[in-house]
Design brief:
The complex is a heterotrimer of chains A (199), B (295) and C (428). Chain B has 295 residues and is an all-alpha fold. Chain B has helices at residues 14-36, 38-63, 72-83, 91-105, 118-129, 131-134, 162-180, 187-203, 217-222, 224-233, 244-264, 270-279, 282-286; strands spanning 138-139, 150-151. Chain B has a two-stranded antiparallel ribbon. In chain C, 29% of the residues lie in helices and 19% in strands. The chains are: A mainly alpha (199), B mainly alpha (295), C alpha/beta (428).
Amino acid sequence: MKTADFRGVLWRDNPLLVYLVGLCPALAVSDRLVNALLLGAVMLFALLGTGIAAVGLERFAPPRLRLPLRLLLASALVTAAQRFLWAFAPTFTAPLGVYLPLLSVNCLLLGSAGAGSFSDGLLEAAGRGAAFAVGLSLLALVREGLGAGTITLFPVGSFGGVLNLRGLPPARVLAAAPGALFVLGYLSALARRRGRGRS
Amino acid sequence: MSQPAPHLHQGPTTRGIMLAAAACLAPAATWGALALGPSALRVLAVAVGASLAVELAIGLSAWRRCTLGDGSALLTGLLVGLSLPAYAPLFVPAVAAAFAVAVVKASFGGLGRNWMNPALGGRLFVTFSWPVLLAVRPRPASGWLRLPAGLADGSLLGGSGTLGLVSTLLLALGGAYLLARRIAAWEIPAAFAAAFALTVWAFGGLPAGDGLFRGDLPAALASGGFALAALFMATDPVTSPQGRAARLAFGAGCGVLSFLLRVYGLRPEAPFLAVALMNMFVPLLERLSAWRGGR
Amino acid sequence: MSQARSFPSGGVCPPERKSATASLPIRKACVPAEALLPLRQHAGQAARCLVRIGESVEEGMPIGRAAGPLSADVHASIPGVVRQLREIRLADGTASPAVLIALEGEFIRTGRARRPLDWKSLSRGELLQRVEAGGVVDLNGVPAAARLRGAGPARLLVVNGVESEPYLTGDQRLLVEKAAEVLSGAAIAAFILGAGTVQVGVEANKPEALRAAAEAAAGFGFEVIALEARYPQGEERLLVQSLAGQRVGGRLEESDFVVLDVGTLQAIHEAVTLELPQIERVVTVAGAAIRHPANLKARLGTPVSALLEECGLEDPARVIAGGPMRGFALSSLDTPLTKGMNGILALSRREILPAVRTACIGCGRCAEACPWGLRPAELYKWLEHGETAAARSRGLEACTECGCCAFVCPARIPLLQGLSAGKREGAA
């Protein structure tokens, strides 16, 4: 996959912002940047895994078993990630709630068909996963920054994790569900606009 | 062909309609400024200014033309200002007006394309964004008229006592002019007022345990939001239905929702919420008045 | 006479603006030095040209022969020599071949008094033939002969004495001054049609015309009915609805009713009793930009500029051929007077009240004004998006292009133009 395709999938074909795939987890966990980053990372991981597996399945598995096997694999990967996170970072995993396992469905939608070579499959999955993560993080950045007046990241060393933004009092509606749809709408318009200029 | 027929016209132009509505708000706005002092004046000025500025900016950058001439931005700004309390910090009317023009109106294509009343959209955005700043609070004696202290409402002109009463009267006067000149459709405020008054009077006493037909009608009618919403916001031609049956249903729906949201929801901005909710049903309501034409 | 009746809903009440010419008697306009006669002054195909350049023509001589069902003969309106045969643009923007005649010679038809023939001695076929030979065309461009031949025996003939557009007073004056001739034409038409009843509709606010019509009608046994002064009262189907009290289902041509206007009926009378073809017509020249407004009886083919000059033109904002509600703004004042042109209006800016066009604000005034209960703004939007079928299923075909919708539109959307273009597209 060339660089142009990569930029294409980031804006013009962004799975979250343009195709509106995975809206449910996206709107739910974009209230804080740290949640968005985490979910995005898990999505990337799961997509990479299913991407590699899809190519293998395409070559070796009987046709009727490919879809169920892909679903099984996606669920397994997501569950593994979930268990890992619960074990090592429970405070960050708790806010993700039920939306983490929901990712397995989205992996199915976004997973590649496995038609090309392994490297193609890998790049495609990486592109889509990264695009999803970027879109989600942008959404969370705006929502949390304007809606709650903070930016929450992973605590590192002495940094507690929460950046307080000074300025006007935060607009609470953006931190709630309707606000999420507002912001998503405009980000979607922005992504299409940027995507139109390219390719 | 050169200029098309008909070559004569009758009735107001778009600008005439918008400016007439703005002019009818002027008495109530002046009263508000006099009664509440410079803070009210500032809220109004910021709302109108932000509305005009944002409409000009979007018009020039997106459509390459200035649409201020049709008077709708001025009207939106005035309505936003009048629907906010005088104690709102100044960024609130600015954001409300900007949201109204940019998101509710311009994002859908500008004048005539929006489905929700822009001023209402702006007011509701700030209602849910900064609820604490806009909450009902006691009003000190202020303004050039030195009115006695009372309870302020969610809107500029609302509240107990003289302020609310006179405001409602002045708004009713302005509204009556609009109805007389057939700029506003009479079915909407009539149905709105009838439904609201009936439900408040009949069921308004229930939450307090007073029984039926004991509702506090005067207080509900005199609150500033009701007259503004019924006469100036619900009657916006772009977001209200056409046809008598549809308009009556629309007004009645607004009235009933206003009652529910005020008496059971305890929201001071109930009429605004009610009209915004009914705006969603306008295409459906218009089916009640199907075209009857044909040879 | 009965009380003022009207159609059930819709319509508008534009300002009358008839005071300048309502009491001015019809006077003859100056004969033009050159008459430019279009060969298509009717709804159908252009008439076939019968003359060549250089040929001498007499007044009233046929110069074009009807070619097709809705076509009619065209006659020379002045005696003279054919100087040119060329294509011109008519007031409505369409093209038509035309014959240019330069004035020369004697007026043998209109100059001399003739004894009117007693038409009752003629048969139905002979009467029709005379009407056809006269090239009589009504205000809608339909040849009178075609109307009279009709689909079947008509029950009721309606005399359309209604002139509900502002400024126009030609028909009104015709009734006041020549009611007997008009109703004689109606009697002829009724005989040809086999119609049992004749009703005359005149607006209630024209007492002089009502009186004149009633006096003449008494002799013929016709009924004169006063109608509300509301536009478009003169629209045929609405007129029938006002008079007969019932809606006309289906096409008017297939119903029991035939509607003919007073100008056409007078032309029928002249064509039958005097064998005088349609070479003149009454036209109201009015508007704030006219110094001396008048009701002129002018020769067909007279350039509009000549008539305007005769009445004194003063810096107009717009010159219109026809009425202000449906007439055509003229870009060239050389356009000739044709059979359907009942008015030439020179309006000032203050009369027109130009305004900027904005987006539709959904006020619904157009729907309230439409006499047919349509929703013009909605139809316009469908047509704007190219959805002609959707517009037709919502009643586009019922539109009679009266212009009431655009008249009241605050956003100044060209609804009439849009709807009529959509109808043409649908018919194509």
